[in-house]
Write a structure and sequence with these properties.
The protein is an alpha/beta fold. It has one domain: 3-Layer(aba) Sandwich (Rossmann fold), CATH 3.40.50.1820. Strands 1-2-4-3-9-10-11-12 form an eight-stranded mixed sheet, sandwiched between helices. A hairpin with a 2-residue loop joins strand 5 and strand 6.
Length: 207
């Protein structure tokens, strides 16, 4: 059953899973996406898992995002910190509302960036994260206790938006805070392909 609600501060979709043994997924779309964008991806990589998928509240033109940016790859970090807390609070409220354990975030691009920010700023909210085409969110990241928290980072070697050195720095930052990071670089651009789906599926199966 798919259910969209706006009375929690975020328009979102919640799908109750059929397999209670699976950790729920928090689906975080990229720029211009919405709360339905990643539902098919979530069902594919984690069959039977509950899915929680909010819509970003910041508009860039008509395109929803999770936080403001000043230019391509240049984040408004004040807004990012505020929006990260706002999203983390929503996740805690949704967990109570729907009776969920801590979710694994599955984020693409802008959604992956705020998931990375949440790991560093509000580490207790997530059980882990799969970050697809993510960048370093903070110029000076907060210290976080991510001991043993599983994180998958999938980067594209041909990505015109995320430099390889930036993705490597993100993986290193998360690892230095204790996360169990699996960083893979694919022969791909910024878009997702079958290899991404297979790697995320296999990684989730191990969690």
């Amino acid at each position: 059953m798919t259910d969209t609600k706006a009375d929690t501060g975020f328009v979102h979709v919640f799908e109750q899973g059929s397999d209670p043994a699976r950790k729920p997924l928090l689906l975080l779309h990229g720029t211009g996406g919405d709360e339905r964008d990643l539902l098919g991806l979530g069902r594919t990589v984690a069959p039977g898992a509950s899915l929680l998928s909010p819509r970003g509240k910041v508009l860039e033109g008509a395109a929803p995002r999770f936080f403001r940016r000043l230019a391509e790859g240049v984040f408004d970090e004040h807004d990012l910190r505020r929006r990260t807390d706002e999203l983390a609070d929503f996740v805690l409220e949704a967990r109570e509302r729907y009776g969920l354990p801590a979710p694994i975030a599955l984020g693409f691009s802008n959604g992956a960036n705020i998931a990375a920010a949440m790991l560093l700023q509000r580490p207790d909210v997530l059980a882990g994260a799969a970050l697809l085409r993510a960048m370093v969110p903070f110029a000076e990241p907060p210290r976080a206790d991510l001991k043993g928290k599983p994180v998958l980072v999938l980067s594209g070697a041909l990505d015109p938006i995320v430099p390889a050195s930036n993705a490597e720095r993100l993986a290193r930052q998360l690892g230095e805070n204790g996360a169990a990071v699996d960083h893979r670089v694919l022969p791909a651009g910024h878009g997702l392909g079958q290899a991404d789906l297979s790697l995320v599926h296999d990684w989730i199966e191990r969690q």
